[in-house]
Design goal:
By secondary structure, the chain is of the alpha/beta class. 45% of the residues lie in helices and 17% in strands. The radius of gyration is 15 Å and the shape is globular. It binds 4'-phosphopantetheine. 4'-phosphopantetheine binds next to strand 1 and helix 4.
């Protein structure tokens, strides 16, 4: 059984992330999506909210589970007995950013190899920042997130205002 670990901030998870998860499922037996903390980022949503939105996004997909962790990716990798870390990349900027993390992870855990999946053209412009901007502007992020996440974000926005 091969297990792919897909870590990220997912603030929130987009249809672009979902495409990468689905593609990873064609390559590996099981996918664990880990909602984690990037110390460099100020999050719009709590770890719990980000996790709930990831769960809504992958609902109904077999062989995928969502977990959250505030620890190190390389430790989680060992705890899960993962075979590979999978990350999606859209462009050169993503690649440069991801390569640095992949190198750090590999230097600290020689088993923790990262495989990059190129995002499909359709998802090049899809990103979590855009989703947050739309929600802040009172617009719906339809087409960027699954409908259940759009509804979740709308309900959150209502509760906060
Ligand atoms: O979606 P992101 O923000 O690019 O994901 C980055 C993330 C959360 C995967 C990365 O910051 C991470 O692995 N965080 C867990 C803590 C850790 O292992 N840090 C080591 C430095 S890469």
């Amino acid at each position: 059984m091969s297990l792919a670990l897909i870590p990220g901030s997912f603030d929130p998870m987009t249809v672009g992330h979902l495409d990468i998860i689905k593609r990873a499922l064609t390559l590996y037996d099981e996918v664990v999506v880990a909602v984690m903390v990037n110390e460099q980022k100020n999050y719009e949503h709590t770890l719990q909210e980000r996790t709930e939105m990831a769960e809504l996004t992958v609902a109904g997909l077999d062989r995928v589970r969502v977990i959250s962790s505030e620890g190190l990716l390389i430790d989680l990798f060992d705890q899960l007995g993962a075979d590979v870390i999978v990350k999606g990349i859209r462009n050169e900027k993503d690649r440069a950013y991801e390569e640095k993390m992949a190198e750090w992870n590999l230097a600290h855990n020689p088993r923790a190899v990262t495989v990059f999946l190129q995002a499909a053209d359709d998802y090049e412009q899809v990103n979590s920042t855009r989703v947050r901007e739309l929600v802040r502007a009172g617009e719906s992020p339809d087409n960027l997130v699954v409908p259940a996440v759009a509804a979740y974000l709308a309900a959150l926005d209502e509760r906060k205002s």
